[in-house]
Design goal:
Shape: globular
Structural class: alpha+beta
Oligomer: single chain
Order of helices and strands: HEEEEEEEHH
Number of domains: 1
Largest sheet: 5 strands, antiparallel
Helix content: 25-40%
């Protein structure tokens, strides 16, 4: 297993749309293992392959405190979403230190392949629903901050630019 480099917003590679996985083979299983290790190390609760500059439709999620309930969603597709909306404060490994409220469907039904290549369908609500929708956005080339108002996006870009300047100054 290897730790992968997580891309940070506004890196243009975060806007690439991921391609479907053709076959769940040894390479994809290794990617899943590396993504899981990277997510746990970060630490985070979800990671999309797009965030580690692999543009294939693979997501790992683990909402457990013990980090022992890994969910793998390959080629995930939302096949149903409730009309009811929930607001959840979201953060992202690709936008460190930024949290804001995002509105999403409160319940979804998702079909996908698991890490063995077997077809699955799950119903998700609460944090799992939010997390799946957030990670699928990544696969579709969208970062959660792009769901916020223009003013909030502008403030976030300014904050990130300031953080980069401060980091560069401490390195120099």
């Amino acid at each position: 297993m290897a730790l992968l480099n997580i891309l940070h917003f506004p890196d243009p590679r975060l806007h690439k749309v991921a391609k479907p996985v053709a076959a769940v083979n040894a390479r994809i299983k290794q990617l899943v293992n590396d993504m899981a290790q990277t997510m746990y190390d970060a630490p985070g609760i979800g990671l999309a392959a797009t965030q580690v500059d692999v543009h294939e439709r693979v997501i790992v999620i683990d909402l457990s405190d013990e980090q022992n309930e890994l969910r793998v969603l390959i080629n995930p597709e939302i096949v149903w979403a409730s009309d009811e909306i929930q607001t959840y404060e979201e953060g992202c490994l690709s936008v460190p230190g930024v949290y804001d409220e995002v509105k999403r469907a409160s319940e979804i039904k998702v079909q996908f392949l698991d890490q063995n290549g077997d077809a699955q369908i799950i119903d998700a609500d609460g944090l799992l629903s939010v997390c799946i929708q957030h990670e699928i956005d990544h696969l579709n080339g969208k970062v959660f901050v792009e769901r916020l108002s223009s003013l909030k996006q502008s403030r976030i870009r300014t904050k990130i630019a300031k953080q980069k300047r401060e980091q560069a100054a401490t390195v120099s």
